[in-house]
Amino acid sequence: MTPHQRKISATVSHLLEWYPKNARDLPWRRSRDPYAIWVSEIMLQQTQVNTVMPYWERWMQALPDIAALAKADSQTLHKLWEGLGYYSRVRNLHRAAGEIVQLHSGRFPERFEEILELPGIGPYTAGAIASIAFNQARPILDGNVIRVLARVWGLGGDPRSAVVRDQLWQTARELVEAASKPAAKDQTASRRRHCADLNQALMELGALICTPRQPQCEVCPLRADCKALLTQSVDALPALPKRPKTTRRYFQAYIVERRGKFLVRQRGEGAVNALLWEFPNVETGSAKADPREHSSRLLGSVSTVEPIATFQHSITRYRIQVQVYRVAGVHPRLAEGRWVSRGELSALPCSSAHRRIARLAAEPVPCRT
DNA sequence: ATCCTGGTGC
DNA sequence: GCACCAGGAT
């Protein structure tokens, strides 16, 4: 046995020992249903556990199986996803459910290659489903696992470079394959879900102990195996490249209310936040752009334009300032969009920013003094 | 306030 | 190699 193989095997033992005692009791971990695990993995892409939990519960309640998802309409799905962001994920879930019904008789495929074919499922998610739902020896590599492996093996260099990325995948593969083979010293009945547990342990360790900042190396199950700890380079690993600087952008949004109804419009298929509903808005060049000029250009004609609020939000690398105005005197014939009641508005799927504007719209018009 | 985080698809 | 979103940590 080479030193490398010994390290792989020690890491597997330590992780499998640690995981059952330290894993969080997350709702999707109580399920073996590949559908439930798939939904959780898609939600967990780019989104944190605490955010996902209520969404997953609601989703599973509303759409308990693949057939229910396949039959659901786009508006229901977007409403269930509202606020999670990256809305292409929900469209891909729907398309994939359709493919599973058509191509796999409604049963979630078990072969890795077939899982990987489904829309919205890449190498990470396919590995996660194969290992967690079906206990197959498939590696996973997400941000958490990259951090753990880069530190334990002391891998410098950009983890996104081909060389380091291949090293990381190879290590992840060796770990899960080692977990899949019964160890000489431990052949009790407890050896069963070891591929599932090993992969989840890697992620859980990254989430709870081997964190980006202030990792808890003192209590880490891999502290005896960790190269970075030995060489005091934990804080320097993984060596991620700096993110590009954020760009400031400025938007104005208009609350147009007439006879208790609000003017809203639906975003196009190819746009950011595709198919979501929004208040009329324009991107301007600066925070000082004239709201009267921009709103009348967008809405035909306006009488009064009153500032309501300003807030910030972020999409990808953009830092966006939204100035919200209440606009009166809009000709319903000139303004494009749909007029909806307060109740209808709350039923339409919106991005977080426009849901926020909807809350402002619901507030009573402030009295002028 | 200012920093940081994250898989897939094109 | 970039676009996609909404947060959390400090």
What does this molecule look like?
- The chain is α+β, with helices and mostly antiparallel strands and 369 residues long.
- Strands 1, 2, 3, 4, 5, 6 and 7 form a seven-stranded mixed sheet that branches.
- It has helices at 3-22, 34-44, 49-62, 66-71, 74-81, 88-103, 112-117, 123-132, 143-152, 162-180, 194-208, 227-230, 291-299, 342-347, 352-362, and strands spanning 247-258, 261-266, 277-278, 281-284, 304-315, 318-328, 338-340.
- Helix 2 runs antiparallel to helix 8.
- It contains 15 helices and seven strands.
- It binds a DNA duplex (10 and 10 nucleotides) through helix 6, helix 8 and strand 5.
What's the mean pLDDT score? 92
Shape verdict: elongated
Strand % is 5-15%
Helical fraction equals 40-55%
Order of helices and strands: HHHHHHHHHHHHEEEEHEEEHH
**What is the overall number of helices?**
15
Report the strand count. 7
Major sheet details? 7 strands, mixed
Which secondary-structure class do the elements indicate? alpha+beta
Q: Which consecutive residue ranges, at least 5 long each, have pLDDT under 50?
A: none
What is the first-to-last residue Cα distance? 83 Å
Radius of gyration: 25 Å
